[in-house]
Specification:
The chain is α/β, with parallel strands linked by helices and 424 residues long. Helices cover 33% and strands 26% of the residues. It has 3 domains: 150 residues, Rossmann fold; 162 residues, Dihydrodipicolinate Reductase, domain 2, CATH 3.30.360; 83 residues, Alpha-Beta Plaits (2-Layer Sandwich), CATH 3.30.70. It contains 13 helices and 18 strands. It binds NADP nicotinamide-adenine-dinucleotide phosphate and L-homoserine.
Length: 424
């Protein structure tokens, strides 16, 4: 490849693929040889007259005149087979596909190593933020203890728009989709699967062992209402969707994804819109925070084309691929059960407005060792239901769940509206 253009097969020409094609037009070291789409008759935002378009993804994996596959289609089928075939044929991979890397990264990295090629995935986590390269290279001198932050642009955009502009959940989601931030199936964003894949990748790089994505506790933002956002603000918090991975003394890793109350003085509270922000705690460096656009056409394309330029430089060196191989062991590291985690909690309950309700709640919490910080009744609705909001002190999740099981069985309880953990 020395002395000639690097030939690219681009799988996907949606939000990210269009950004990649746009940025590559200014990169003379690369030639976009073939583009794969699902529907070649779909109108596109860029002029495709000088490109070869196909609907068969496998053609780029087997084309001997392609050096690198840029995979920005998403999902597992057919991408996994295409990537495997391409690697076996000696092609390098640059991908934005967090699900692919979270589910099959270990296997694909080993296959890449065996075939002396590299797999780059900077765009898979944190959009335009150089997060993967920071973990893989910039922080190599550290033992990483914790990685935590806002890892999904769509949900952060929705929560920000609901809070600041009073938009409804659906209207904010529609805006995020129109801007190209959301996944093809936006429930991946809203229900937290997107963050599960991302935190699984960060965890595997930070702790050098993969986690089983199915073992990661996940709560989405679908249950968060504008009332919760307002109440949280009254208590001095903002609600943020957080992914977190932390070493535990017993060798397991606490990895989870859920919305959290973030104190308004905390730096994550000020991260708005499509932006992401990630804290990394390292043994030598202390705490590092990286932030920037977590999704969107050009920020994501920036990460992909950055990977391509890294690859182009590395191609000048002999046996460079091993340098980019993430040092991840093959054995999966256990994820500690959510029941064992400790947090303070926000609980919104709907109850009948009858005498003794608050006393009975206090009794149920007390019986399970849950100490309350505050109890607030937020008015009574026309149908006689009352909204009661409780903040607890720090308590083990198992105790909280036992108390909530007792509370849901109380005759005055209509429903447990929302339970949120607090970041501090
Ligand atoms: P998108 O807008 O839905 O585009 C997907 C593209 O892939 C489309 O061009 C589609 O073809 C093509 N495609 C899908 N399945 C295909 C198949 N079986 N055969 C051929 N072509 C296929 O998605 P996106 O937002 O660009 O996201 C792409 C990937 O990047 C995903 O893994 C996503 O998680 C990741 N990512 C996205 C962002 C973001 O801000 N959007 C940021 C970081 C990472 P048609 O155009 O013909 O339908
Ligand atoms: N849907 C993802 C998000 C794209 O909103 O963060 C970036 O990975």
């Amino acid at each position: 490849m020395v002395g000639r253009k690097i030939r690219i097969g681009l799988l996907g020409l949606g939000t990210v693929g269009t950004g990649v094609a746009t940025l590559l037009a200014d990169q003379p070291a690369f030639a976009l040889r073939r583009i794969v789409v699902r529907d070649r008759n779909k109108p596109r935002e860029i002029d495709l007259s000088s490109y070869e378009l196909t609907e068969d993804p496998m053609t780029i994996a087997v084309d001997p005149e392609i050096d690198v596959i840029v995979e920005v289609a998403g999902g597992i089928d057919p991408v996994y087979e295409v990537v495997k075939t391409a690697v076996q044929r000696g092609k390098h991979i640059v991908t934005a596909n967090k699900e692919l890397i979270a589910r099959h990264g270990s296997e694909l990295f080993a296959l890449a190593q065996a075939n002396n090629v590299a797999i780059f995935f900077e765009a898979a986590v944190g959009g335009g933020i150089p997060l993967i390269s920071t973990l893989q290279r910039g922080l190599q001198a550290n033992r990483i203890e914790r990685v935590a932050g806002i890892l999904n642009g769509t949900t952060n955009y929705i929560l920000t728009k609901m809070e600041i502009e009073g938009l409804s959940f659906d209207a904010a989601l529609k805006e995020a989709q129109d801007a190209g931030y959301a996944e093809a199936d936006p429930s991946d964003d809203i229900e937290g699967r997107d963050v599960v894949y991302k935190i699984a990748i960060l965890s595997s790089l930070a702790f050098q062992a993969p986690v089983n994505v199915e073992a990661i506790y996940r709560q989405g933002i679908g249950g968060v209402t504008d009332l919760d956002i307002r109440l949280a603000a009254d208590f001095g918090y903002r609600i943020k969707m957080i992914g977190l991975a932390e070493r535990r003394a017993d060798g397991a890793i606490d990895v989870r994804v859920h919305p959290m109350l973030v104190p308004e003085h905390h730096p994550l509270a000020g991260v708005e819109g499509v932006n992401n922000a990630i804290f990394i705690s390292g043994s030598a460096v202390g705490e590092v925070m990286l932030s920037g656009p977590g999704a969107g056409r050009l920020p994501t394309a920036s990460a992909i084309v950055g990977d391509l330029i890294n690859l182009a430089s590395a191609l000048q060196l002999p046996d460079f691929a091993a340098y980019f191989h993430p040092p991840i062991r093959s054995e999966v590291v256990p994820v500690s059960p959510i029941d064992d985690t400790i947090s303070s909690y926000y609980i919104r309950l709907e109850t009948l407005d009858t005498p003794g309700v608050i006393g009975n709640l206090g009794h149920a919490f007390g019986a399970h060792g849950v100490s309350l910080h505050s109890v607030t009744q937020k008015g009574v609705r026309a149908d006689g239901a009352a909204t009661i909001v409780l903040l607890t002190h720090r308590v083990r999740e198992r105790n909280l769940q036992s108390a909530l099981a007792d509370i849901i069985a109380q005759p005055a309880t209509l429903q447990i509206g929302l339970v949120l953990r607090s970041l501090e």
